[in-house]
Specification:
elongated, 6-stranded antiparallel β-sheet, alpha+beta, Phosphorylase Kinase, domain 1, single chain, about 180 residues
């Protein structure tokens, strides 16, 4: 590779970093024109930059939480959390695991989100979890789950919400949607 080519790649790379991430693709398409090799080089550098920035920016507690969550078994499957009998794991994320559970009082299925055990001593994480529950409970919209209860079980906060069978919003958004379907979401 020539020194001029290195300079060209470097200049585009630095210029692209100054642009909002949402506008980078259009910028690179315009600046690289038909030079696919140039675009690939710049995109590769940007990806490496973002990956290294994420590595530095991700707090160690988040990494530790992911590792601990990955090592946990099925959690409280079969146990009764509050008045909810845990049936199965639905999914997990940064703020806890979500289980399919049965409301033993009303006989309905619910989604039960439990704050991870390793967050129970972190006041900020507990507060964030509770704020999430309170914010969701204050909303009334057909596309937002109804919060049934906010509670505590063995020192762990939980949120019980309506259970909606189907695909997740993330999965649905990955599919090609018509304009009207996207607007409905």
């Amino acid at each position: 590779m020539t020194p001029e080519r290195y300079q060209q790649i470097g200049d585009l790379y630095h210029a692209a970093l100054e642009i909002d991430a949402a506008e980078r693709a259009a910028f690179l398409e315009r600046e690289c024109a038909a030079d696919e090799d140039l675009r690939r080089e710049v995109e590769s550098l940007i990806a490496s930059h973002e990956q290294s920035a994420d590595f530095i920016a991700i707090p160690a507690i988040s990494v530790a939480a992911e590792l601990l969550a990955a090592r946990e078994a099925e959690g409280p499957k079969g146990q009764v959390v509050g008045r909810y009998r845990v049936l199965s794991l639905i999914g997990s994320g940064g703020m806890g695991r979500v289980y399919l559970a049965e409301d033993t009082g009303l006989g309905r299925r619910v989604a039960l989100k439990l704050l991870p055990e390793h967050f129970t001593h972190d006041k900020n994480q507990v507060q964030r979890f509770r704020q999430e529950a309170l914010a969701a409970s204050a909303l009334n919209h057909p596309n937002i789950l109804t919060v049934y209860e906010i509670g505590e079980w063995h020192g762990r906060d939980f949120i019980a919400t309506e259970f909606v069978e189907g695909v997740t919003l993330r999965t649905r958004m990955r599919r090609k949607l018509s304009l009207s379907a996207a607007i409905d979401i």
